[in-house]
User: Which sequence fits this backbone?
């Protein structure tokens, strides 16, 4: 469904569908390390996302809510900074 919506706006936008093989908490750990290392900063405030980030734990969010914003952030940063694997990658600069 998301792919179809994106394609109606711009048919050329690249879309990579993903399937989760691990829980949200485990997927978030490498991204949390990027924040701890100072490799990720927010250029402005994102109150709803940041509220979810503070409330997110091994059991999800309080009140049984789903951490949708955090999960989307984890997928995006994993793709952009970790090569989509969820594990740090080594780049060759030579």
Assistant:
């Amino acid at each position: 469904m998301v792919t179809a919506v994106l394609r109606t706006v711009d048919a050329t936008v690249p879309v990579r569908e993903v399937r989760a093989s691990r829980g949200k908490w485990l997927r978030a750990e490498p991204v949390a390390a990027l924040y701890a290392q100072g490799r990720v900063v927010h250029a402005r405030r994102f109150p709803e996302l940041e509220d979810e980030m503070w409330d997110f734990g091994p059991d999800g969010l309080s009140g049984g809510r789903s951490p949708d914003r955090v999960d989307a952030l984890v997928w995006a940063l994993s793709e952009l900074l970790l090569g989509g694997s969820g594990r740090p990658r080594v780049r060759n600069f030579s």
Notes: The radius of gyration is 15 Å. The chain is about 45% helix and 0% strand. Residues 22-82 form one domain. The chain has a mean pLDDT of 87.
